[in-house]
Amino acid sequence: MIDFLVSSQLQTTTRVRKKILLGISLFFNLGVLFVFKYFNFFIETFTEAFLLFGKPISYGSLQLVLPVGISFYTFQTLSYTIDVYRERMRATNDIVSFFAFVSFFPQLVAGPIERASNLLPQFQKSRVFNYSKSIDGLRLILGGLFKKMVIADNCAVIVNRLFEDYTEYSGSTLLCGAIFFGFQIYGDFSGYSDIAIGSARLLGFDLKKNFNFPYLSKNLIEFWRRWHISLSTWFRDYVYIALGGNRVSKFRLVFNILVVFLLSGLWHGANLTFIFWGLIHGIILIFTVFINNETKFGVFLQNQNSIVVDFLRMSITFFIVTIAWVFFRADSITEAFGYLDRIFSSTLFSIPQGNKLFLILLIVYLGIEWFQKKREHLLDIHYISSKSIRYLIYYVTVFVVFYYAGDLQTFIYFQF
Question: Which of 92, 189, 363, 385 gives a 20 to 30 Å CA spacing to 274?
Fold first, then answer.
């Protein structure tokens, strides 16, 4: 409600008053986010810092229930107010459309983070049933369910076991666990985004693509252009550019990138592990930027179109991202370093028998993504001329999803 009222005043006031109104919106939105999500974290961190100097202090924490999706709709409404302030769009007077935009149920819980300029106008126009869009929406939902229920949920079983007692496993087993977690978090985030986008498409709404085959990236810059696109572009447009972007000195460029990635890590969760994860990405991305722009070797690599070179670059990027995921998954930084220490101190590489088949399936899945990399989504298979083959692929995917959901009886009921 605050953003609706503030934005309605931003177009009819002085420049100084506009800044005050924007400040009210920022203070309210970020304040609510801080209290619900970060207050206890900062209090505990502050207390632990005093313990280092032998000065224990008592503190009280807030026992609050974190509202579902608060990080997503907070950023969504903030982008609306900032865009109105920057005169990139006009404020709406339709309060029903505004609240529908904020609370649009398909993407409310876990994104994608939609811009008002894209989604809000869609509530203000009539929609008619579109058969082809609805069918494509169902394909997106099916692909999302496959990622979530087949890839992510099965990876989670292995990952949870390995991270809970990592000291009992070999380095190669733990490396497999890190790889599995990379696919788990990708299947969770990307799968839900596909389900949300597909559900919205069934209702006649078009949401922005949120994941674009990120594990096929050839460097970390490309990875962040493909991973959680709605979040990375939000930080780019409203934080990075506001700090000066790349039109600044090299020192300031380093500062801007680090700020963005530290905030990105903190956005994912109130824990030092997330901040450290963001710091790792920020440091390596800075290194990548300077390698690409400042060295002949970087220019040479960018001009190479060889499949072998591309595969090597993708493998290195995937390895870096996988190692960083360990900090994202671990309960503490100490645990993350302990996990990595066992990986790199191992001299014998062997894949546990029970995980071999599933690792092969993940490699096959990456191969499918490679073939689909120029398509809109995983099950966008219009290029297959045979209708029978296309339907066979759909039915096999549905069968696999129901199988891993443990509900084959329902599948059989619907078919026969």
Answer: 363
Sign of the alpha-carbon torsion through 216, 220, 222, 225: positive
Q: Rounded to whole angstroms, how far apart are CA atoms 141 and 190?
A: 11
As given in the structure block, the two tokens for residue 407 are 């509900």
The catalytically annotated residue of 268, 281, 377, 382 is 268
Asked whether the beta carbons of 273 and 330 are under 8 A apart, the reply is yes
Q: What are the tens digits of pLDDT across the range 304-363?
A: 667 778 888 888 999 999 999 999 999 889 899 999 888 887 655 555 555 667 777 788
- Alpha-carbon gap, residue 218 to 320, rounded angstroms: 11
Residues of the chain with pLDDT under 70: 39-42, 44-67, 292-305, 346-356, 405-416
Beta strands in 144-297 (DSSP E): none
pLDDT of the residue at 320: 92
Q: What's the length of the chain?
A: 416
Distance between CA atoms of residues 192 and 196, nearest Å: 6
pLDDT of residue 408: 47
Residue type, 237: D
The span from the first CA to the last CA of the chain, in angstroms, equals: 50
Tokens 């904020």, located at residue? 102
159 in Cβ contact with 176 (< 8 Å): no
Residue 121's CB: how many other CB atoms inside 10 A?
13
Q: What is the reported pLDDT for 318?
A: 92
Global pTM reads 0.84
Contact at 8 Å (CB) between 220 and 281? yes
Q: Measuring CA to CA, how many Å separate 328 from each of 84, 178, 255, 332, 345?
A: 35, 10, 22, 9, 21
Q: Which residue has the tokens 């990875």?
A: 223
DSSP 8-state symbol, 88: S
**For residue 299, what pLDDT is reported?**
53
Average pLDDT in the chain: 82
Q: What is the pLDDT of residue 69?
A: 73
Contact 411, 399 (CB under 8 A): yes
Do 189 and 229 form a contact (C-beta atoms < 8 A)?
no
Question: Measured between alpha carbons, how far is 105 from 95 in angstroms, rounded to an integer?
Answer: 17
| Whether residue 382 lies in the annotated active site | no
Question: Buried b vs exposed e over 48-81: b needs ≥16 C-beta within 10 Å?
Answer: eeeeeeeeeeeeeeeeeeeeeeebbbbbbbbbbb
